[in-house]
Each structure stands twice: as C-alpha cells, then as structure tokens.
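[job 0417] fold request received: Phosphoethanolamine transferase
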Amino acid sequence: MSWLLQGRASKADWNSRNPPATAPTAWSVERLVLVVVALLVIFGNLPFWHATLAGRSFAEASTWKFTVAAALAIAWLHVVPLLLLGTRRTVRPLLVLLVVVTAVAQHMMRQYGVVLDPPMLRNTLRTDVAEASELISPWLLANVAVALVVAALIWRVPLRERPWRQALGARAMALLGVSAVGVAALLLGFQDFSSTMRNQKELRYRISPGNVVYSTARVLVEDLREATRTPEPLAPARLADPAPDQKPRLLVLIVGETARAMNFSLNGYERETNPELAKRPVINFPQTEACGTSTEVSLPCMFSSLGRAGYSKARARASESLVQLLARVGMRVVWLDNQSGCKRVCTGVEYRRFSDERIVSPLCEGSRCLDGLLVEELGKLIQVAEGAPPRDTVVVLHQLGNHGPAYAKRYPREFARFQPECTKVELRDCSRDEIVNAYDNAILYTDHLIASVIDMLAAQEARYDVGMIYVSDHGESLGEKGLYLHGMPYAIAPREQLAVPMIWWLGGSGVRGWQGLDEACLRRRASQPASHDHLFHSMLGLLRVETTRYVADRDLVSPCRQERSAL
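[job 0417] inference complete; emitting structure tokens
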C-alpha cells in the first residue's frame, strides 16, 4: 500500500511542476503572443524609443499620447502575423527566434548606430565567417544569453489544448480585438506618428524584430527575382588601334575598404597619414563621393556603367561589369581579393580570394591576411609575366583596408604609430581618440601599400605604360553623431560615410607614356568634384576601349586628352 501512496505522491508532485495542457494555469497561444510582443516592444526597441522620443518632454501630455499610440501600433503590427502563423506547436519556436533576433539587432543598433534596412541585411548575409567573428564581443554574448533565458522561459510555459473550433473562434476574436486596438492607436496618434516617420524614414528600420524580418524578406525576394532576370545583351566593344610607339598597358586598380577621405593627409588632414604618397607624383582627387555606404552596394555600382542615379542591384547584375568588359576585348584581367568577395563583379575573370586558401605567411593569421599579401602576389604576377611578351593587363587589388570594428588588426605592429590605439571590438568601450588612432594607423599602412605598388610599377616602365588608381568603396563613422561603422541609408548618410579618397599615378612624371594626356589639365580636373560614377568611363578612356556604353562626360581623362580617339 505504501508503494501505491508513494506513486500517487510522485505523480502529484510531477503534475504540480508540469501542469497538463488543460489545467487552469496553462496559457492560450494568444496570451503568450501578447505578453512576449509587449516585452519586445518595451525592452527590445530601446534604439527606436531613444531616437523617436529625443527632444520630447514627458511633462507634456502629447508625449505620453504619442508613446502609447506608437507602442500599441507597433505591437499590433507584430501580433497579427504571429496570430496568423502561430499554432500550439509552432508559436514557441517563432517567438524564441524573434527574441534572439531582437537581442542581436538591438545590440548592433545600440553599439554601432546602424539601421537594419535591406541593404544592411544584404551586406550582413554576404559577410564571411572571418568578418562576422570580429563582431562577437562580451556585450553581444551577454545580450544573446539574456535572450536565451527568455527563450527558456517561453518554452516552459504550458499551452492550453482546445478543440479546433473553439481555438479558431478564440483566434478570430483575438485578431479582431488586437486590430481594433491597433487601428484606434493609429487614429489617435496618426498625425504625430506619420509626421515623425515621414521626416525620419530610417526610424522604421529601428523597430525590432520587424526590421530584420522585413529586410530579410526583401533581400530574398530580390535575389529570387534576379536569378530569373535575363542578362542584358553585350554592347559592341574593342580596343582602339594602338599608336605606333605605344607600349602595352599595365594598370593596377586598388579598391580600398572603409577608407574615408577626411583622414588622408593628402586631403588636408592634420595628421601625416600619407607620408610616402606625399613623396610621389600622384594625382589626388580630394572631392570624391561614393556610390553607396556599404561594399554590397558600392562595389557593383562603381564597376558598372549605370552611375548612382541609375543603379540597382538587379540592373548591375544583369549587365556587364568593367572588368568583364575589359577581359572581353582581349585584356588580361586579374582580381586578387583580400575581402569578402567581388560581389559577382569579377565573374569569368582570373580570380583569387585569399580567405579561400590556406596561405602560410607571416602576413596571415588563420583565414585573415594583412593587405601586404596583395602586394606580394602582385609582384609574383609581374615576375611571371616577365618571361612572356607584354600584353595589356589590369590587376584589381581588393583590400581588407580599414574594415571595422577591429581596425587594430588591419596593420602590422610597426605601423601602430598613433597611440593609444583601440584594440577592442566594442568601439564604445574605447575613447574616441583611441578609435581614431587605430583607424589612422590602418590608413598609414594603406599609404605604404599604395606607395609599394607605385614603386613596383615604376620598375616596369621599360616594358609597359604603367598606372595605378586607388579609390575606396565607402567611408566610415568613428563616433560622430553617435554613429559607428557604415551602412546608413544613402539619403541620410553622413559625409564621413560618403566622402572617399581617390588617387591616381600614371608613370614616373605623372602621366608620361599615356598617349596624349595633358598632366596640368588632369590635375586641374582632379581639384573638382568626382564620384564613383566616373570610374567605369575613365578607365575605358584611359585604356582606349571603344564601346557604346562609354560616356565621355563621365570620363575624367576625356577633357585632358590632346589626341582623342573616336570613342
């Protein structure tokens, strides 16, 4: 008898800890969704509330009216899809996923000031493992740990079992009730809410987890659409007939990463970050604007003929890039990549990505190498080519450059000139001076690399007309206005993310060897505004490529050519 009583006691104890789905303590799916969404709206959207309520006083009734209306409207927009998709079996996984996503999104927005719009999500999805690992920090792990605790609590909530008719009726009533409250909230604060969203369009991408869900869906839909898009027909193109005394061309295009123009001493920066380039006859373009604020946008844009105004990812992928066109007309084109790839720009040309290889070098640690390896590999290419007749060649060096937030990992110790430097991933844990010091050290290293490429090319002037073009893909925020890194929507992006350095070198005396160029004219043109829109057409003009896609007005060389070809 005692064993029976003991068994009943054990069962009662189990039931007290794990109530059955029909027990009064079991929750409905609707109740669980409402509670979790309410917590996300209040505690998971701190960047949104901080930006939205800036300058408002809680001593005024209008502020409370706006806050309550906005909170109810945001909750409504999240609750309705969850009630339409969530069942007793699926609601827990959905909520757990959204809690974790919200924790990571809030961390990124609070730490770096970014907004999670479709371009930023596309950039994130294309990020390689090495780049992503550099963003892992104690604060991120702490946020994820809190999210996992909440997820565990969600999973432990017992959910009520109901006949399907009763469950359907309860769900319909919940949807009607929530929608009524949401519509009422929008009407209550419509004028204030709509005005705020219209004047600060980026705010919608600070609302989590809706921002991540919406932006990810947009990216996937656009990628699917592009996969079925018919490529544009190739435009007729050919190399112009060479002049009798013209040598083959060897042009190196260095694509910088996250370098902003205002930190180059060539552009007037008070620190000497370009000591080596200052000693060489380079042509500096101090007023150059990027096509985008992320590699995912800027790289395809700058290698396309579309220009920023006509650019879309779909159009760029459906048309021929600059390097593809150069390869088609018979030039040798080589792309060496120390970044996260060429974003399909270099499909079909000679291509090496260092992170795809196991390279044993003092310049490499794990899958990440310093940009000095680009210069070494360029030297090997030139050395091999010395055993064959010279031919027109373009080499693209895609830098790791100043890719953040781990700026201190972008240069060897001998270039750590500016001290103290920030060596942390969490930039907000460093002073602004420390962040700028690390960033400037990386610029100093880039200065050395560009100068090394120039010296290497100068040694080839007997065989080639040699040249070098350096231009960065986008800039970087280093704490100005509370922003870090890059990727802000173009319409509201600060100058720090848009103004980029562009530097040319065209032979030992500036432009010697490039047929018919007026150096003084080119230097005057360099002092005027330029942009990524000019790269495609300027390189076609410089290399004498004839094609219907060439636009003379976007060719920086065209006004300075004394003997123009019939392009």
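[job 0417] notes: Residues 432-458 form the longest helix (27 residues). The radius of gyration is 29 Å.
[job 0417] exit 0
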